[in-house]
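Troubleshooting log. The previous structure file for this entry was overwritten by mistake, so regenerating from the original sequence record. Sequence copied from the archived sheet and checked twice against the printout by T.R.
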Amino acid sequence: MEKFSYETNGYNRDEVNKFINDVIVQTENIVSRCRKQRDEIESLKKELEHYRNLEKSLNMAILKAEETGDNIKRMARNEAEMIIGDAKGNASRIVNESLLRAEKIENRADILERNLKIFKRKLRIIVEQQMAVVDEIEVLELDPK
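Regenerated output below.
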């Protein structure tokens, strides 16, 4: 609290005027600081709003990326299942074809084996007949008629 000295007609005018000028200067400084702080608050509010919008955009982008990733995983899983199904089908077909082919080869081998046995039997008969002829020739040669 400011105290003023007394003069004949009341307080000392110079002291009061100086006090009033000091109060005016201090008030103007306070008002100026308030304006600056208000402007700074407005600027910070705008900046905060900008960052909130940016955060919202980033969150939306993250959600979209997660959805896209999930979709890609699902599609890859489906494609893998299709490929596996096709591969199983192809493997089954190949196994069946191989079994049929093996059966045909086995049947052919059986036929060839039977034919070989028949050929050997016939050849043995022919050889035996020829041996009989040879034996007959020997008997004829030994017999001096």
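The chain is about 90% helix and 5% strand. Archived copy saved in two places this time.
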